[in-house]
Amino acid sequence: MRPVGVLLAAGAGTRIGRPKGLVVAPDGVPWVVRSVQVLRDGGCDPIGVVVGAAADEVTALLVDSDVTIVPAVDWSVGMSASLRAGLSWAATTDAEAALVHLVGMPDVGADVVRRVVAAAGPGDRALARAGYHDRAGHPILIGRAHWDQAKAAATGDRGAGSYLKRAGCPLIPSDDLARGNNP
User: Fold this and answer.
1) Is the distance from CB of 9 to CB of 68 less than 8 angstroms?
2) Which of 103, 104, 167, 172 has the smallest CB count inside 10 Å?
C-alpha cells in the first residue's frame, strides 16, 4: 500500500508560543520540512500539508518541496478543522488510505510510518495507529472507508480518536523507535 500523507501543520502552537510549522530544529531544519521528508521516506505519496496559522510562512518553508498545500480556513477551531481539511484533500486522490501525522512530533521517523503502514494491511478499510507506552499516538493510517466517520467524529481540538477507538483501531507499539511526544 502507498498511502497519501496528510501532515497537520495548521495550529497556532499556543503551548510553545508559536506555530509548530515554524519551529526549526537545532540542526537548522524546520519541523515542517523534516516531517514532509519523514512521510516521503515512509512511503507516502502524494503529500498534503494542512496549513492555517502562519500559513504564508509555513508555505514559504515548503517552496522547494513537492507537496500540496491544503488550507484549513477554520484552523482556529482546533485539530478537527485540520483533520477534516486533510481528509477532504485526500479524497481528491485515488488513494485507498491516508497516513495522518502531526508536525509537532520531531522524534517520529520514517521507521514508525513504515511500521504503521505495514501493520494496517492493504485496502480501503485499513486502520492502525502508533502507540507509545500503551497510549494512542501518531501517525495514524486511516483507510478511505473510514474517512467520513473520522471527519464526523472530529470536533473542536479533538481529532478522530473517539471513532478510532469504536472502530477497534489497533495500537502498533512504536516506543522502541520514538517517544511520540507532541511538545
Assistant:
1) no
2) 167
Q: What is the pLDDT of residues 134-150, one digit of tens each?
A: 999 999 999 999 999 99
Give the chain's domains with CATH numbers: 4-173 (3.90.550.10)
Residue 37 CA to residue 50 CA, distance in Å, equals 15
Q: Residue 47, Cβ neighbours under 10 Å: how many? A: 22
Report strand pairing: 135-143 vs 97-102: antiparallel
C-alpha 50/C-alpha 8 separation (Å) is 5
142-181 confidence digits (pLDDT tens): 999 999 999 999 999 899 999 999 999 999 999 999 998 7
pTM: 0.96
> How far is Cα 63 from Cα 99, in angstroms, rounded to an integer?
22
| Cell, residue 83 | 483533520
